[in-house]
Design brief:
Order of helices and strands: HHHHEHEHEEHEHEHHEEEEEHEE
Strand content: 15-25%
Mean pLDDT: 93
Shape: globular
Structural class: alpha/beta
Bound molecules: N,N,N-trimethyl-histidine
Radius of gyration: 20 Å
Length: 327
């Protein structure tokens, strides 16, 4: 008592926002400052991300959509090898726009599978709960809201038939190369020999194309990035002046890392649930990494993490890869 504890909010931050609060305070205490990208996805962020996916500058969704519409049958063949009895887990399903092609094809093939979408956004899970029964009748599914890893780790303690884990949309790109290697190793640890995963990777390509995707001309990505501050204002009683921040993104062709930042436009002090945090003019908060991979890097990552690189599916321009790995 008495002394101010950095990690105890002075104002009441609801229990449901405690992890969010701690992650924000810890991230902004770092030099350089950073915020975790997983907090982009509140109700507003989900809507903005849908808009990004529809944006002509954001090619990723269309590329992967092409793969799933044109090659659903081939994907299923490489997944099942004749055995259509498995549990299909999807990490970060969003609106299911890509996986729905697979789900429909599996239902049509009389597969006896269970679909388990896992998403950080409650909003996404409740959306699927109302969307799926009408759109993929006969689908058996159980949505789980939570952090990928905690939820998956817990879920994989349950006995199941064969498991297939999908992580589409280049979601894995939100981790650094080192983190995704770690992630794939851990994922392998949860699986049994014969289990599989399908992972969507955005491939390296002309740097200008990549940069455009994260700084679209309609300014939706800018809104999406700034929404993180709005969410902090709303949920953590903070007083960020949104108009004093700008969106900036970089792409480094030497490392394949696209990074997004929020640039502070003037010196200021921001209060977050009672904690004052100083910002300097031109200081950047790193909010996101979207890592791009070469085909060889992907094949290497499979081996590094104990998987067999079983098949790869590419769009017509070779801008995106969905890789099937077998444990
Ligand atoms: C959902 C992580 C795949 O990094 O491309 C889109 C998120 N951020 N525009 C990506 C995002 C800015 C997206 N992922």
């Amino acid at each position: 008592e008495g002394d101010f504890n950095f990690y105890e909010p002075q104002y009441r931050v609801g229990k449901e926002n405690r992890d969010f609060y701690l992650d924000v305070i810890r991230g902004l205490a770092q030099v350089p400052k950073r915020l975790p990208s997983k907090y982009f996805y509140d109700k507003n962020g989900d809507r903005l991300f849908q808009e990004i996916m529809a944006s002509p500058d954001y090619y990723l969704t269309r590329c992967e959509m092409e793969i799933f519409t044109c090659q659903a049958k081939e994907i299923i063949d490489s997944l099942s090898a004749g055995d259509l009895d498995f549990e299909l887990i999807e990490l970060g399903p969003g609106n299911c726009a890509k996986s729905i092609h697979l789900l429909r094809a599996l239902v049509a093939a009389n597969a006896s599978f269970n679909y388990v979408p896992i998403d950080i956004s409650e909003n996404v899970i409740s959306g699927l709960q109302s969307f799926l029964p009408g759109n993929v009748p006969e689908l058996r599914f159980k949505g789980l809201a939570g952090d990928y890893f905690d939820t998956l780790a817990f879920h994989c303690l349950l006995p199941a038939t064969r498991r297939v884990v999908m992580c589409l949309g280049a979601n894995i790109g939100n981790m650094t190369v080192a983190e995704s290697n770690q992630f794939c190793k851990q994922l392998r640890g949860y699986l049994q020999p014969g289990d599989q995963c399908i992972i969507g990777f955005d491939l390296v390509k002309h740097p200008a194309v990549i940069r455009r995707a994260y700084d679209d001309r309609a300014g939706v990505t800018r809104e999406f990035n700034l929404n993180l501050l709005k969410r902090i204002n709303r949920e953590l009683e903070a007083d960020f002046r949104i108009d004093r921040f700008d969106h900036y993104c970089s792409y480094d062709p030497l490392t394949g890392a696209a990074r997004s930042y929020l640039v502070c436009l003037s010196d200021m002090v921001v209060n977050i649930a009672g904690t004052d945090i100083p910002f300097q003019k031109d200081e950047c908060i790193w909010t996101e990494i979207s890592q791009k991979y070469s085909k060889d890097q992907i094949r290497q990552m499979a081996t590094n993490s104990g998987f067999i690189h079983t098949s790869e599916f590419l769009d017509s321009r070779s801008w995106f890869m969905d890789a099937v790995w077998t444990a």
